[in-house]
Design a protein that fits this description.
mainly alpha, 3-stranded antiparallel sheet, about 5% strand
């Protein structure tokens, strides 16, 4: 196949020469790491397709492949199409997130999932990228259209969403939404006194969660004084067992003892089987995506793109940090996946949509494409 020429005016040609190929490559690397760890994180392996571990592995590989296709498709959208897609997604998945309170599948005391034939869906995962785009759109429109109450509308949407997530309850996702909307208001020029007040409210909310939400209290106390054989201690042992170069693919033992080895503690599996250098490489790939996006946004004249892109990359980077830091016992454990690497179809597809939106927003555009 001949390489695409800069003179190619087809949809594919225009996309190829305008998309951030560095970020695209880094995201492809993460999908590749996800594929490798889909194999490594399985407690056992069988060539029989009916084996549950094999089925889980095949399902994850399928979602990774689908995620790559979805990401590419989303990255080809125009700014107007990004807004409309996010608005439609936001309405649908806000209603579905509310529906989990009535007919959700309860796991560990939380109603976050909807059971469908053959799999479950966590609607709040898909609500996140849509919320980020819609919030940025409202805030930017308040600057563009004098008298439009965009900032108040964005704050209202956030409060409704946070209330819904609190009722599930999903404190980690609520925290993530809060940090994203604060970053957007900060990028829009929020005064430091209001930022300080908001930060104080976040601290008060965390204190409230510690004293009045049982599973939050339990996780914090286990972080302060971890009992012998806890998941956090087992994960730390996995990093120690792996050393610099790891025990080798399939040779790790942590996946036999950690119930969340494929999802919340997949970073520990990587540390045991592939070692310190591999884990450092994963961190560098995440850092490269975040920093490259922020650098591109520094030169962006469109406020909506700055707010939306900043929110998307802050959410992405913060989620990766929380997962890896909890695996290393730097913070209390939190059921938050490692983007594009942890097991879970909802997580992979939602993050693929989120990063597809980011690729679409950070494409090089001509003056006529800025609307």
């Amino acid at each position: 196949m001949a390489p695409l020429s800069r003179a190619d005016t087809s949809t594919l040609g225009r996309w190829w020469w305008s998309v951030d190929r560095g970020t695209l490559l880094a995201l492809a690397v993460l999908l590749g790491i996800g594929y490798v760890l889909a194999l490594a994180a399985m407690p056992g392996f069988s060539l029989h397709i009916t084996d549950p571990h094999t089925l889980a592995m095949v399902r994850q590989i399928f979602f990774l492949a689908m995620g790559g296709v979805v990401m590419l498709g989303m990255s080809m959208l125009s700014l107007r199409q990004v807004k409309l897609a996010a608005l439609g997604m936001g309405i649908v998945f806000f209603l579905l997130t509310g529906f989990t309170l009535v007919h959700g599948t309860e796991v560990d005391g939380a109603n976050r999932w909807l059971a469908l034939p053959g799999f479950t869906v966590q609607p709040s995962e898909f609500l996140r990228p849509a919320f980020i785009i819609v919030s940025a759109w409202l805030i930017a429109e308040s600057r563009r259209t004098p008298g439009f109450p965009g900032k108040r509308a964005a704050l209202g949407v956030y409060l409704l969403t946070a209330l819904l997530l609190k009722m599930q309850p999903d404190i980690g996702m609520t925290f993530l939404f809060t940090m994203v909307v604060l970053s957007q208001f900060y990028l829009d020029g929020m005064e430091m006194k209001w930022l300080g007040i908001a930060a104080g409210l976040v601290v008060l909310a965390l204190v409230y969660a510690f004293f009045f939400i049982a599973h939050v209290h339990t996780r914090v106390m286990m972080f302060v004084d971890p009992p012998k054989g806890s998941q956090a201690q087992t994960a730390l042992m996995a990093f120690g067992n792996g050393g610099m170069y790891g025990l080798g693919p399939g040779e790790g033992q942590v996946k036999h003892f950690l119930p969340d080895a494929r999802a919340d503690f997949v970073f520990a599996v990587a540390g045991e089987e592939f070692g310190l250098f591999f884990c450092a490489f994963i961190i560098l790939v995440f850092a490269a995506i975040v920093l490259r996006a922020l650098v591109r946004l520094l030169a962006e004249p469109n406020l909506f793109v700055v707010l939306a892109g900043g929110g998307l990359v802050v959410g992405f980077g913060l989620q990766a940090f929380v997962n890896m830091a909890s695996s290393l016992s730097l913070i209390p454990t939190k059921g938050m996946t490692l983007p594009l690497i942890s097991y879970g179809g909802s997580s992979v597809l939602a993050i693929s949509i989120q990063m597809g939106f980011l690729l679409a927003l950070t494409r090089k555009r001509h003056a006529g494409d800025l609307a």
